[in-house]
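We modelled the chain as a single entity of 387 amino acids. Its sequence is:
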Amino acid sequence: MLKQLISIISISFFLCYASTTYANKTNPPFPPQISVEILQVPTPLVALGKFYLVYELYITNFHTTPVTLKAFEVSGPEEKDAIFNYVDKDLEALIHPIGGTDSEENPFIFQPGITKMIFVWLQYETEPEISDALIHKFSFEGKIHGEHMDLNFMTDPIKIEKIAPVVIQPPLKGDFWFAGGGPSNTSFHRAANLVVNGHDYFAQRYAIDFIQIDKNGTSYAGNEKKNKSYLCYGKDILSVAVGTVVRVKDGIPENVPHTTKRAVEMTMETIGGNHVVVDIGNGSYAFYAHLIPGSLKVKKGDKVSTGQVLGKIGNSGNSTEPHLHFHIVDKPSFLGGNGLPYAFIGFDVRQSKTIIPDPVKLQILNSELKHYTNEIMLENTLIKFSD
């Protein structure tokens, strides 16, 4: 059973004073006025033999003066629990300004009233290593009331629900599928949040763009500007589970591959192109995007079976070349919901190296296949689905 907490949960915090007093700094008389919020309490993701917790923190400086983040730590409440420490470049990689670009030369500086996001990606070797709860420790410093102060605090524990990801059948058949933008802390899907009706959503947190390549590592043969040149164009898209079609969109014309212009203006209705959304139960919705116009085989209200053809891979909506965009979300909306972890019943992986991500160019390092069961692939993995 897949159950998610989807409302923003405020994390209360309290001071954790350091035992050392610095010569030019002093401890503040009140707790640091720095707010920490979590968008969605994570449940485990299982990918290529590892276990992950993936979530976002919103950090807001309520002081009237700037503060600087020096260190960030995640741990469990028990001494035996894993500890994740982030400083310097490792910490900088987690910080994401809100609004696209950060005017600060120093990304660690939080100006008064400014909120930044921290993208958390915790990797565990085994499932038992995942803590029952998570505590977040922050080390800031700043000039408060004219004095340089260490602003150290930690959050109250956040309980983790250890719920297994929903296991699904593959949405495609065949070999040499490239998992473009698949799960990672740096993929373009990971950072693709959108505010809808006053709520921030990360619908594409675990999204994958499936692009098929040939044995030479390229996604097309012939004219790059023609959709029919791409290996995956027109391939059948399959229902990953039994469910009910709750949303369809058809009639959106296709784009010319690898041009900056889209065939239609991008809106909430058109960004997914021609698409199908299937309610697969337990608050989970499978989303299939960028289909060929007129290729959809289902309509709203249809009951679908596992493996049933829903439509064909195309290049409609916000797409640069033919591919299947797939993810599972907690609402029947492309962007107005939160992405949920999922796992495929089985697939095989080849070792490869990405040379160019768009248009795809890979170097296949080893043709030997490694099989995975009830897991998901990570960003830019080259995989084979069973027929």
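As a brief sanity check on the tokenised model: Residues 9-159 form a domain with the Immunoglobulin-like fold (CATH 2.60.40). Confidence is low (pLDDT under 50) at residues 1-24.
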